């Protein structure tokens, strides 16, 4: 849509073109009658120069207007692209929010110490900011980790003591087994001697009886 300035320029061009047309018609009539042209046609030349200047000015204004329109369109396109990016980010964030709300974290399946026991046994630093559910859950998880670490250390200690007792019992059993073997060997070694003593005893008894 032409601006006010462009409309005025168009009107000026139309008026000047009409003036040039009227002058040209009058000059043609004078030429046909053989009458001399007033001021040697200078007025027509001046009018044509004015028309040329107006046309050049109108062309420059139109070119500038097109450039401004192109710049405005480019700026509008950039803003539109920016708006599309913002809308995309908004949609993406909304999708992430939905995912986060639907996400089931591992901590939800962790069997925590009851809240009463937590309040009774947890260190002081874990009992701060209890009005904040998120911080309270973090503190409970930290306390749970502390408790399980302590229990694991106790379990490892008891396991080490159990293994030590097993090793000691095994050594004691090995000693008993060696003693049993020595005893068996002694018994086996003493058997011939015992038999010889029995024979000697029988022989002595027989001799005395005779």
TrEMBL record:
Coiled coil: 141-175
Keyword flag Coiled coil: yes
Name listed for the protein in its UniProt record: Fms interacting protein
Classification via Pfam families: FmiP_Thoc5
Domain of life according to the entry: Eukaryota
The UniProt record lists the keyword Secreted: no
Keywords: Coiled coil, Nucleus
GO MF assignments: mRNA binding
Cellular component aspect of the GO annotation: THO complex part of transcription export complex
Principal localisation: nucleus
Family: Belongs to the THOC5 family.
InterPro entries, A to Z: THO_Thoc5 (IPR019163)
Subcellular location(s) per record: Nucleus
GO biological process: mRNA export from nucleus
